[in-house]
Design a protein that fits this description.
Rossmann fold, alpha/beta, six-stranded parallel sheet, elongated, 434 Repressor (Amino-terminal Domain), 18% strand
Length: 328
């Protein structure tokens, strides 16, 4: 059985209240002698005492934890973002609870409810499910529950999003300057649906022929899409791909069918994951500032938690850019 405050109090010969004051570093304001404090701490150590998380949360009215909802940590971009968020949360003395949803609408709603049940103090989330007519949206407003939406606007909830246009414009201009005249966009829905307008606008501005090449999120099917693309006589001579993970697998499909990157087809990814530098050829990619996204989201959550009020209408737009490597 776990050691309780009463166990310590009985062995030291003081009240449980005195033990609580000592272990919560309130002994000076209660004028408890250093000798008593030393005895309490030593007995607590000898009995392997561990503070009760739930009891502390009840006493403080907070759990010192935040929730993070994202699509899939199978994508290195979100895995790296999760690791970054965990480190930064710890620096602020918060724990981070993760819920991965694979971009399923119902799973996103379930993830929100699960994190509420765990008593988190706030949630940052990539989600399409928190629409203004949804139950989570109404809950957030009713209880002024600290929430930050990442990526896609949801009514007046605090939002951090990316301006895709600069990175896409730089990518298309770079391809044009390298002599490519037709560009395809490779990606899965619904992510591609949001990005294709920026892609088409950039191609139109620079006078390049644009086309769309849908692919699935499953790695085996991405590989097949790369092979099919390589064998299509009407393929463009360059592609911009929805993510670095998809681009890496897609390139494997191209090379298996005898094409050379970038000699036969130039490839641009998106996300700038760490591995993008180390694949062969190293991947030119549209950058996304996940560090600022996480830092800002946590800062907002802490501020809302302290003020017990939503930052309604707050928005932060992060620019994208381009890192040029050998795949173009």
């Amino acid at each position: 059985m776990a050691t309780t405050l009463n166990d310590i109090a009985q062995q030291v010969g003081v009240t449980t209240t005195t033990v609580s004051w000592v272990l919560n570093n309130r002994h000076k304001e209660k004028r408890i002698s250093e000798n008593t404090c030393d005895r309490v701490r030593q007995v607590a150590k000898d009995l392997d005492y561990r503070p009760s998380f739930s009891a502390q949360a009840l006493a403080k009215g907070k759990t010192a934890s935040f929730g993070f909802v994202c699509g899939s940590i199978g994508n290195p971009f979100f895995a790296e973002m999760t690791a970054l968020a965990m480190r930064q949360a710890q620096q602020h003395n918060y724990h981070l609870l993760l819920a991965a949803t694979d971009w399923e609408f119902k799973t996103e709603l379930d993830a929100f409810e699960m994190l509420l049940a765990r008593g988190v103090d706030g949630i940052m989330m990539f989600s399409n499910a928190v629409a203004p007519d949804s139950a989570p949206y109404r809950y957030i407003h009713r209880h002024q529950f600290p929430t930050v939406i990442l990526g896609q606007k949801s009514g007046d909830l605090p939002l951090i999003y990316e301006d895709l246009q600069p990175g896409m414009m730089q990518a298309v201009e770079h391809l044009k300057n390298r002599g490519y005249r037709s560009v395809g966009y490779v990606g899965h829905w619904p992510t591609s649906q949001k990005r294709i307008p920026s892609f088409e606008q950039a191609c139109q501005l620079h006078g390049l022929k644009a086309s769309s090449w849908p692919c699935d999120i499953d790695p085996d099917l991405i590989l097949e899409a790369g092979r099919a693309f390589a064998n299509n006589p009407d393929r463009p001579d360059a592609v911009i791909v929805v993510s670095d993970m998809v681009a890496t697998i897609f390139m494997q499909g191209l090379t298996e069918e005898g094409l050379s990157v970038p000699k036969d087809v130039a490839v641009v990814g998106s996300d700038d994951i760490r591995m993008a530098r180390f694949i062969n050829p190293s991947l030119t990619t549209i950058t996304r500032d996940r560090n600022t996204m996480v830092t800002t989201a946590l800062s907002w959550l802490i501020q809302m938690t302290e003020q017990k009020k939503l930052m309604l209408g707050a928005e932060c737009c992060l620019p994208t850019g381009l890192v040029i490597r050998k795949s173009t």
